[in-house]
Predict the structure of Retinol dehydrogenase 11.
Amino acid sequence: MWHIITAVALFVTYKIYVKILNCHSHHDAVLTGKVVIITGGSFGVGYKAAKDLAARGAKVILGCRDLDKGRNAQEAIIKVTGNKNVAYRKLDLASLESVRRFVKDFKDSGTRLDILINNAGAVKTGTVHTNDDIVESLQVNYLGGFLLTVLLVPILKQSGNGRIVNVSSILHRLGKMDLEKINCENVYNSFQMYCNSKFCNILFTKELAKRLSGTGVIVNSVEPGFIRTKTYSKNASLLENLSYLVQKLFLKSSSEGAQTLLYLALSDECEMVNGKHFSGCRETTISDKAEYGEMASKLWKFSEETVRLKCEETIM
Ligand SMILES: NC(=O)c1ccc[n+]([C@@H]2O[C@H](COP(=O)([O-])OP(=O)(O)OC[C@H]3O[C@@H](n4cnc5c(N)ncnc54)[C@H](OP(=O)(O)O)[C@@H]3O)[C@@H](O)[C@H]2O)c1
């Protein structure tokens, strides 16, 4: 009996702790006239964030690898928010050409840009190289977003006070930063590559913040917490639905995971905050390793070379 009481007490304490750590973007920011690009906005955390931003009146552009998913997300967001200013555009972060085409089309449209959220990410195998000869995980989770951001910075600068949010993970703490090996096939497994790429997101944020200092554009990184991916289905197996139940009890919903992204994108308190890392709408520490400025600037140089950035595109 005591075992059950102890287990229930521990579980309730855990839930209260998680609730305290959670936050809600209860600020009343209105985004009419503002333009947001969000990568991976077709699903999960990105979709929830996009919906919130659209509800506040922003023009929201979903950068999507899969256009069918993009269309479904667009239709759902318009239906729920009534904001017809929601668009989806082809953006495959695993292709440098796709990133460049996305930016060119956006620039050609002459649209302003106020907020860029680099949210898309996935655990990919550490063994596959993309057509650009980059390890897929590194390209999707970091280098694609690096190129996208660097190319969009001039437009963000024009808005006067642009904001960039880079989505990382607590797993960045397990990341390894050996630039000799990071883009080599079969050196790291999928999980380690994911951690490495999330560590890159943090170092990228640090270096970009330094380069943007004084421009009015700010950049910060965020860890959304562990989010449940399973959904209940009558047709799923017992094991799958048990896994859903466990996730439901212990992990955050996508909507909860989106709150810190929104906080960084919207809140007045963050207006002057640059180069910091957030969790649960609070500034938090990063891996000790990421404090090293030299590592961040080496990664920047490696990234410029790997995505074949032209001299005139560099942010000094
Ligand atoms: N889930 C967690 O527990 C957790 C924890 C810490 C950090 N994070 C980070 O939070 C972010 C969002 O996670 P999530 O849980 O919402 O993930 P998710 O549900 O799997 O959604 C990821 C989004 O990224 C898109 N995407 C994947 N590959 C892409 C590519 N090559 N080009 C463009 N878009 C691509 C996906 O599009 P498709 O639907 O077409 O694949 C999807 O819209 C990620 O950066 C993730 O690393 C997640």
